[in-house]
Amino acid sequence: MKTGLYEYAVRRGMTRRGVLQSAASVAALSMMGGALKPKAALAQDDLRAQILAIPGVGNGSPTDADWQKVGELCLGATKANVAEGEFAGVELTFLGLNNQNLHNFLFRGFLTSWEKYTGAKINWVDLAQADYNPRLQQAIATGTVDFDIVEMGAPFEGDTAGKGLLDEMPDWVKAQIDMDDYVNYLKAPVGTWDGKTYRITVDGDCHTFAYRKDYFGEGSISGMAEAPTHWEDVNAASLAVLGKNDPLTGAPAFGFLDPLKGWGGFGFYFLEDRASAYAKHPDDPAWLFDPDTMKPRVNNPAWVQAIQDVMDMIKGNALPPDQINADPGTTAFQQFLAGTGSMITWWGDVGSNAKTSDSSVIGDVVGFSINPGAKKVYNSKTSAWEEKENFAPNMAYLGWGIYVTNRVSGDEKKRKAAWSAAAHLGGKDISLWTAAYPSGFQPYRNSHFNYDEWAAAGYDKAFVEDYLGSNADSYNHPNAAIEPRIPGIFQYYSVAEDELAKGFAGQYASAQETADAIAAAWEKITDQIGRDNQVKLYKASLGM
């Protein structure tokens, strides 16, 4: 191991809490190959330091005025490629999310100065998370794509790029956004199809584990010295705090927060968090389907165990009241950040919001790690459990990106305007701000892992090392559970949510019956799309 990597791992607390308490630790380090190494103490870049001071950590949630200010300060790259007023008369339609008043709301602010400088106008289509998949799929299925720019995740690339609905990225855009700065797992083939590049990445999604440090330690209400590192102990901790009071708020104490309500397909990722530890064997890249047949694995013993874990929490009354109506947005923003519950898996929003959002009360007591592992792992090749611990962080969604559709392909002025707007949103400097403040996005560039830069902005350095470290450990884990970029993936996820809701409500007799219902529905989707082609694309997405 190179000395620099070793020092980096120690400085970043790679051994903290026994996060990678297995031989996988060494393998993870060897895979880094120089990625995500914090820079040495260098002079702060004036622009980056300036935008990180807007509004400043501890000064409350950013506002539209802050978004506009950041967007204007980062306009230099646009001015180098576009003349003032060059896009006068151009109108573009942008489809994206409005979750938690983030995503499109930030984009509006960031692009205000861009519109003023270029002369273009953007019309916005704002979608709630639960409405996103149906709206996009309807446009794809009916051939009525009515937007020029779309905020979209890599899982949808099979449905869009695979059907010729996207415009290929021009070379000048690649240079403007510095694609080489992306963390390795978000480089090609992610964002590409048939060798062509279509995506400007604005996010680096993976799920990590956030926990309340005041629930653990000597004399704590959980009775545990440290936060759990395995799902079996997560459930035990949740049951241990029942009937006790939250040490921060004085309200009833709760353990892990499972979201039980669907979220337009996105809620399925949270069952995946539990299942990947049981189901993603280190010797097998597949864990959702059999790669040779597309036969679902969602009803094998590993997935049934994950569903049973959740059902045990429901049966044990270990979740807050009315959790059956709590989607992932509720668990993160209305529960965990607001002081309800002690453990959660989520995207990076929990980390960036913990210290910078008005709604957060847990900033001083929150810790982070990769997702919990399991004390056993199912081997689908031998159809048997193996009694050994297993970690498999869930690379949930492969991050949001900005894509340009083929509606602009025949109009060079409009095409350049669309790509210029997308490039502004995916710029290297503006991305640092979105990683550090509430935005709906999490770190995704190597340059985001300069801890001193975050500390200079007002972040506690120990917090930053813990939060960013959990992302780095997940991105680089040798047994990471990778998201498949295949057509219809959210059809699979959405129907799984529907069946899980029935199971959690007691409409199915068991976890196995619930899992069997999901598998049967998945088989129908595969047959509808075309099994042979799905097998081909699924293998390709797994690098097989």
From TrEMBL:
Record organism: Stagnihabitans tardus
UniProt protein name: Extracellular solute-binding protein
Keywords: Signal, Transport
Cell location: Periplasm
Gene3D superfamilies, sorted: Periplasmic binding protein-like II
SUPFAM superfamilies from the UniProt entry: Periplasmic binding protein-like II
Keyword Transport included in the entry's annotation: yes
InterPro entries the record matches: Bact_solute-bd_prot1, SBP, TAT_signal
Family: Belongs to the bacterial solute-binding protein 1 family.
